[in-house]
Amino acid sequence: MSGSAQSDPRANAYLAARVDDALKMLRTDGMSPALEFMQLVGVPRTVALRVLCSPSQQRTRDRRRAPR
Question: Looking at the record's lineage, which domain of life comes first (predicted)?
């Protein structure tokens, strides 16, 4: 498809859900367990570090959760 260049960066629903799980883990268990979890489920290390180390990069609301 020609429109795939403008795809949602979170198009991979599985990894998006795992990132959300890791953010919950970050709040309860800390950085190290959250990073280890993200690496185990296949989140690229650069993405994991950016999300975990930069709270400003974390999404506050995911549009996919809005009711249709």
Answer: Bacteria
2 has pLDDT over 50: no
Would you tell me how many other CB atoms lie within 10 Å of the CB of residue 42?
Answer: 11
Give residue for tokens 């709270």. 55
**Amino acid (one-letter) located at 4:** S
pTM equals 0.65
Output DSSP code: residue 52.
H
Contact 19, 11 (CB under 8 A): no
